[in-house]
Amino acid sequence: MEVIKLIDTHAHLEEISKLDIVLSKARKSGLLAIIGVGSDFDSNRKIIEISRENNSFVFPALGMHPWQLLRDTYRNNLNFIQEHLDDIVALGEVGLDFKIKVDRELQIEIFTEILKIAKASAKPLIIHARGSWDKALRLVQDYGIIKAVFHWYSGPLDILEELLDNGYCISATPAAQYSKPHREALSKAPISQILLETDSPVEYAGKAAEPADIYKAHYALTEIKTLPLEFVAIQTTCKANDFFDLHIKLQEVPE
User: What's the pTM value of the predicted model, to 2 decimals?
Assistant: First the structure.
């Protein structure tokens, strides 16, 4: 049986131990590429290094995760992102999280700075939103962002509908195997607006994920959408290739 080719569009590779072994396993499993996402200054630097060591397999995205924000230090990270815009395929992980103690006004201020960079550079956004789906969507709309993926979407379905109407994407994670809100969102979204991700090394059902676990998200999405495995693979992989402008040669997307 031919190996199904997929792309993991969201992994925190700098947090994974024995990364060389994990990436080798990912290649052997059939992954074509991994988007390595940063969260703060240190992780962004590491993601750049990892991508250079794994050229044409790991593609870097630099971010400012709302959990990691400090008013005294965020400017250094912002400058680092600006300096490496030509090296990255996206801005992420960025966004808002109103369920944590980080000051909301600071979150909005920094997310707004990122939105300005995204608009000026035409870089896609990888967005974290929790308890803040509506506010995050409003800001993305206000700044005229064209490409954005709201990762691991599990929010309200009315906001999802508006998000999709604006042409934005959501992503399927291995949590699609069991999370009712996540599964509901994926069932409502067209396959043409869904990406696959692992969010490695986050734990699912008590087990830390790695990029090779993208097949769990793939199988779950296939079951939710009642579509053939190969069709879902080609659709999501072609979408990821186009969304991040990876220039990977792929077969044509089926109708």
Answer: 0.96
